[in-house]
UniProtKB/TrEMBL annotation:
Residues 11-255 form the Pyridoxamine kinase/Phosphomethylpyrimidine kinase domain. Keywords: ATP-binding, Kinase, Nucleotide-binding, Thiamine biosynthesis, Transferase. Its EC number is 2.7.1.49, 2.7.4.7. GO terms for molecular function: ATP binding; hydroxymethylpyrimidine kinase activity; phosphomethylpyrimidine kinase activity. It is an enzyme of class 2 (transferase). Pfam families: Phos_pyr_kin. This is Hydroxymethylpyrimidine/phosphomethylpyrimidine kinase. Belongs to the ThiD family. Pathway: Cofactor biosynthesis; thiamine diphosphate biosynthesis; 4-amino-2-methyl-5-diphosphomethylpyrimidine from 5-amino-1-(5-phospho-D-ribosyl)imidazole: step 2/3; Cofactor biosynthesis; thiamine diphosphate biosynthesis; 4-amino-2-methyl-5-diphosphomethylpyrimidine from 5-amino-1-(5-phospho-D-ribosyl)imidazole: step 3/3. It catalyses: 4-amino-2-methyl-5-(phosphooxymethyl)pyrimidine + ATP = 4-amino-2-methyl-5-(diphosphooxymethyl)pyrimidine + ADP; 4-amino-5-hydroxymethyl-2-methylpyrimidine + ATP = 4-amino-2-methyl-5-(phosphooxymethyl)pyrimidine + ADP + H(+). InterPro entries: HMP/HMP-P_kinase_dom, PM/HMP-P_kinase-1, Ribokinase-like. NCBIfam families: HMP-P_kinase. GO terms for cellular component: cytosol.
Amino acid sequence: MNIVLTIAGSDSGGGAGIQADLKTFQELNVFGTSVITALTAQNTLGVEGIYPATSEFVEQQLNTVLQDFEVKALKTGMLFSADIIKTIAKNLIDKNIQIVVDPVMIAKGGQALLQDEAVQAMKNELLPIATVLTPNIPEAEKITGMKIETADDIQQAAAKILQLGVNCVVMKGGHLEGPSAVDTVFFQDGSFFQLKSKRIDTKHTHGTGCTFSAAITANLGKGLSLKESVIEAKKFVQMAIENPLNIGRGHGPTNHFAHRFGANVEVEIVE
Ligand SMILES: Nc1ncnc2c1ncn2[C@@H]1O[C@H](COP(=O)(O)OP(=O)(O)O)[C@@H](O)[C@H]1O
Ligand SMILES: Cc1ncc(COP(=O)(O)O)c(N)n1
């Protein structure tokens, strides 16, 4: 049994955060463990409240999990504060675990899930030890300090991010416009490729980023290569978006069950 870990916030609405991650892990046949950084009172309409854990308790959860389980890959999601980021980085630096960082900053409803001053800690302490970073466009803008509008900007921002020490960056295109949802994957050796899928006209995209990064983590945990892990994760999230559950009165969750029914999905790989 391959064991993976998510270090993230709880979404009481079940569509994002820890809940999306554990559902994705389960669907992809890996055993999921969790370290909770913050509780949120949240539904599809927004985040009503945030109750962060202390960095000491985050550390205790992390060490308790790692002392007992052989974790192959882990992801981070909502980390909330610089203190929590520093604590996590300090405890992971000497571990042989593949690290997927989803730099969650702002909920779709606009509430901050990461304090502003924590971005620097993420850049200095977490990214140098990360295997993959999966920013959406606003997150990549915050990390690089650049405005990102064109394909050229995406490439330049990715180069800046790779300089921070992460091995690979997946620039997610969910927030861009056009008939396709295009993610571009850049590696340290200068190579890159794109993953293109049909853009679905839906408001049910709560947790897309969490689900995508959790699927990459699950695939890495199963021993897939980094490239395969990202490609298969894109297929998983596309199925989850294409077959909405239509629950909740706001931005509803994606459908983590969709792949079970052999949902057909087309993802084009452009090298
Ligand atoms: N409307 C959509 N149709 C198809 N794929 C989408 C759509 N919105 C997002 N995606 C995909 O979902 C994943 C998460 O992307 P994104 O929404 O940009 O991240 P986040 O949830 O962090 O804002 C990416 O693979 C992206 O291409
Ligand atoms: C606890 C928690 N973590 C992450 C997100 C971001 O969700 P999304 O994947 O839609 O950007 C969220 N809304 N809540």
